[in-house]
Amino acid sequence: MKNEVFVGEGMKYIKENYPELYKIIVDLNNEVYTGEALDYKTQKLIAVAITAAAGDERATKKQMSSGMSELGITKDEIFDALKVVLLTSGMPPFVKAVKILNEL
């Protein structure tokens, strides 16, 4: 995600103890989220769907909340992305993600 906001305590450790590696990760992040062919909002919705499909509740919540606060992504837009999760990854990750969305 932009602005060097990463999910996970491990990134804090890497930033403090391996600053060269952290810089590489930040540079890669900036290269991925360019907004060139796909706008940043669409890329964020893809990130929401990927974390939801993986069943990572913490990352899913972070992706959803940052997308809503930073990009104005609506719950309806997130729900549309989650319907793809239902189709491709099944009911369990879909239901978990919908629960998270409803709690936000």
UniProtKB/TrEMBL annotation:
It comes from the Archaea. Residues 19-103 form the Carboxymuconolactone decarboxylase-like domain. Pfam families: CMD. SUPFAM superfamilies: AhpD-like. InterPro entries: AhpD-like, CMD-like. GO terms for molecular function: peroxiredoxin activity. This is Carboxymuconolactone decarboxylase family protein. It comes from Methanothermococcus okinawensis. The lineage of its organism: Archaea, Methanobacteriati, Methanobacteriota, Methanomada group, Methanococci.
